[in-house]
Specification:
The structure holds two protein chains of two kinds.
Chain A (H helix, E strand, L loop, with lengths): L2 H27 L7 H19 L2 H25 L4 H19 L14 E2 L10 H5 L3 E2 H19 L1 H11 L1 H6 L4 H27 L12 H11 L4 H20 L5 E2 L2 E2 L1 H4 L4 H26 L19
Antiparallel strand pairs in A: 1-2, 3-4
Helix pairs in contact in A: 1-6, 1-9, 1-10, 1-11, 2-3, 2-4, 2-9, 2-10, 3-4, 3-9, 6-7, 6-11, 10-11, 10-13, 11-13
Chain B lengths: L3 E4 L5 E7 L6 H24 L5 H13 L2 H26 L7 H17 L9 H30 L3 H23 L38 H18 L1 H11 L1 H6 L4 H28 L10 H11 L4 H21 L4 H16 L1 H4 E7 L1
Antiparallel strand pairs in B: 1-2, 2-3
Helix pairs in contact in B: 1-13, 2-12, 3-7, 3-10, 3-11, 3-12, 4-5, 4-6, 4-10, 4-11, 5-6, 5-10, 7-8, 7-12, 8-10, 11-12, 11-13
Classes of the chains: A mainly alpha, B mainly alpha.
């Protein structure tokens, strides 16, 4: 096992989680809980791949993925912002709807064969840095580099810009934000849409860069749900979200590689000799999500941090309460 | 409460919404049925886009096939059997506002536990049916209940979001079963366990075709009876027992439940276990009555459909039965059209239409000319 290869691939696969998690952070910061990430990612993955198969342009694929997932998110927005429905149930309906749509329209895509993918780049100079260079800046997809930029940018935006403050206010105390002249409804629609677009981008990153192709619902295999778990773990902080995503990406990759070698740390590799034990390896990311959530929740209690106060609560202008 | 108005420039009408004080009796059912009809029309539109040239013709031929014979109706009821149980499972958890999205995993573990009784074997293979079936039922319940215990415990003790934990446990349950299907119990390298002995099968009506010829081809099995019995028990527990009252109180008003001194931690865990247990029984019924062995494809997402059924039935155990039959029909129809993901799509649209239309129950909408 080559650690550089594993970490290199882990960064790529973590980028998928990064887009989805940062998107969900933005949505939840505005007070809207969108559980439809898995569905929107599938829709993005399918839409992007469909565009490339039919029109051959991966950039167009990215655009379509973002638009499709964003529109789906707006549907969730309409139902939970103006129609004040339960956001958990609405998010689940979105998951069903988007998963169903992507499966229906993605039929036959899996046989498409080789298509044009997003380019891979090596950054000059940065790739020369020992250790970090070969892992982070050598022969990575362009989406990976965009991810490096996105997380700090969103972090800066939320904490140090005026619209970012408005976003936080809308999620914490919408009535106060409203009094200040912030349009609570519009802000919530905006960030629900942006969160959806980022989930779509995450899906497109899978199908056009990280593990190219369309494998129906196995394309995402639960990563959308892991992203929601990571959002909680990250305490709604984009930088922690990025760190968590890369760690998870590396873990997922490590598990894939654990079955290959005949010896592990100088011992007989049990996963090589009992291939069925691989099923237990596959459980690890999901089990780890639960552990990470437990750690995140305890830390939140200790540091008195927590979810945006108005998360999941519909805002009604002129009514008492949040 | 003041009326709110939405005014758009150029449009000569105003839309007013005002909260309803009381809801007319006929309205909820009208809104629900309307939402389903709208959702089906929307799905038809999607189908048309997805390349199905005559969706309505497809519908009518499917309807003829499903409702035109006893065989078709029996197929619908066989589909409804696990749905009733998972629908009840979700209703129990939702009554306490616990979002158990893990009925699918609990279903798989229930199926696994019932299989373990047969394949380990815990009950000797030559045991009679009246020994096998109750033990399998109990195992299914316990397996599902354990799978519900984990997220319930984490939620009650550490306030860990149960949506994520139940979902993650779904994936873990699938891999757990795969280990046994591919490895331990694999029959001759195939991805399935050996067939259960006859005594471990839930009897089907078709098994009595020799005595009553009309039963030939009717695959309804004993599991269909478990559903209504479970519905009565769940109804009694939730609506007539003290514990059920505490559950509903905690769902409607958590603060009041805390001030009243109800044991919330214990109740969360118990509600999740009961919910998981019911889903586990669904898994047991499916492999005992239909599949008769453990294999990978035992559920087309029953656990997820259960969420929608519970919501559509407004958590009423008896309505769950009726809605399950409707969704059994939808599942079969989706399979007939033969598009992967179609029944999921329709379910998503129905749920969306339903929760969107519930706005009409809470608000009166008036449109006035300006």
């Amino acid at each position: 096992m080559d650690w550089i290869v594993i970490l290199h691939a882990g960064i790529a696969s973590g980028t998928v989680l990064l887009y989805a998690t940062v998107g969900e952070v933005l949505t939840e910061r505005s007070g809207i809980l969108n559980l439809g990430v898995e569905g929107m990612m599938l829709m993005g993955a399918m839409g992007a791949y469909w565009m490339v198969v039919n029109y051959g342009n991966p950039w167009l694929g990215l655009l379509v993925a973002m638009l499709l997932a964003g529109l789906l998110a707006l549907l969730h927005g309409l139902v939970s912002i103006h129609l004040q429905a339960d956001q958990v149930v609405s998010g689940l309906s979105l998951t069903f709807l988007a998963t169903g749509l992507s499966l229906v329209f993605g039929e036959g895509l899996s046989k498409a064969g080789a298509v044009a993918l997003l380019p891979r780049i090596t950054i000059p100079l940065l790739s020369q840095i020992p250790l970090i260079g070969p892992i982070m800046f050598t022969n990575q997809s362009i989406m990976v580099y965009l991810g490096y930029l996105l997380a700090p940018a969103v972090w800066y935006f939320i904490n140090y810009t005026r619209p970012g403050m408005h976003l936080k206010a809308v999620g914490e105390y919408p009535a106060a934000a409203d009094t200040m002249g912030v349009n609570v409804y519009r802000v919530r629609y905006q960030y629900t849409f942006i969160g959806g677009m980022l989930a779509g981008l995450a899906g497109a990153t899978i199908s056009l860069a990280v593990s190219p192709g369309w494998f129906s619902h196995l394309t995402t295999s639960g990563q959308g749900w892991i992203a929601i778990g990571l959002t909680i773990f990250a305490q709604w902080d984009p930088l922690r979200a990025a760190g968590g995503s890369f760690a998870f990406g590396a873990l997922r990759r490590l598990i894939l590689d654990l079955q290959g070698p005949t010896t592990l740390l100088g011992l007989r590799n049990p996963f090589f000799y009992n291939p069925y034990w691989g099923f237990f390896l596959k459980m690890i990311p999901y089990a780890f999500t639960i552990v990470v959530l437990a750690v995140g929740s305890r830390e939140a209690v200790r540091k008195r941090l927590g979810a945006p106060a108005a998360l999941g609560i519909p805002y009604q202008r002129g009514q008492r309460g949040l | 409460m003041q009326a709110e108005s939405v005014k758009r420039r150029g449009i000569p009408v105003r839309i007013f919404t005002e909260p309803r004080i009381d809801v007319p009796k006929w309205l909820p059912i009208t809104v629900s049925v309307g939402a389903i009809v709208l959702a089906l029309l929307a799905s038809t539109l999607v189908l048309r886009f997805a390349g199905e040239s005559h969706p309505f013709r497809a519908y009518s031929s499917i309807a003829k096939e499903l409702f035109g014979s006893w065989g078709g109706i029996s197929d619908i009821l066989v589909q409804a059997t696990p749905l009733i149980l998972v629908g009840l499972a979700c209703s129990v958890a939702f009554s306490m506002r616990l979002w158990n999205i893990g009925a699918e995993g609990q279903f798989f573990i229930g199926a696994f536990a019932a299989s373990a009784i047969v394949l380990t074997p815990i009950v000797p293979p030559d045991a009679p049916r009246w020994v096998f079936l109750p033990v399998m039922l109990l195992a299914g319940f316990i397996g599902g209940a354990l799978w519900g215990f984990v997220p319930g415990f984490l939620k009650a003790k550490f306030n860990i979001n149960e949506v994520i934990t139940t979902l993650m446990l779904n994936y873990i349950a699938v891999e757990w079963n795969n280990y046994f299907i591919f490895g331990v119990w694999s029959e001759g390298g195939f991805q399935m366990s050996p067939r259960f002995p006859k005594a471990a099968w839930l009897p089907r009506l078709a098994d009595y075709a020799r005595e009553i010829p009309q039963f030939s081809g009717i695959t309804i099995h004993l599991g269909l009876l478990i559903g209504p019995i479970a519905a009565i028990i769940v109804w009694y527990i939730i609506y007539r027992s003290r514990w059920g009252y505490e559950i509903r109180l905690a769902g409607d008003n958590p603060k009041a439940a805390r001030y009243a001194g109800t044991p919330i931690v214990r109740n969360i865990i118990l509600a999740m276990m009961l919910s998981g247990g019911l889903a586990g029984i669904a898994g047991m019924a499916q492999i005992g009555g239909v599949v008769r062995r453990l294999q990978g494809s035992i559920s087309p997402g029953y656990g997820f459909t259960g969420i929608i059924i519970a919501w559509l039935a407004k958590l009423n155990p008896f309505v769950v039965i009726i809605v399950s039959i409707l969704f059994g029909t939808l599942t079969l129809a989706g399979r007939e059209i033969g598009r992967a993901g179609l029944s999921m799509l329709i379910q998503g649209i129905i749920l969306f239409a339903l929760i969107a239309s519930e706005f009409l129950l809470r608000y009166r909408v008036r449109i006035e000319r300006v």
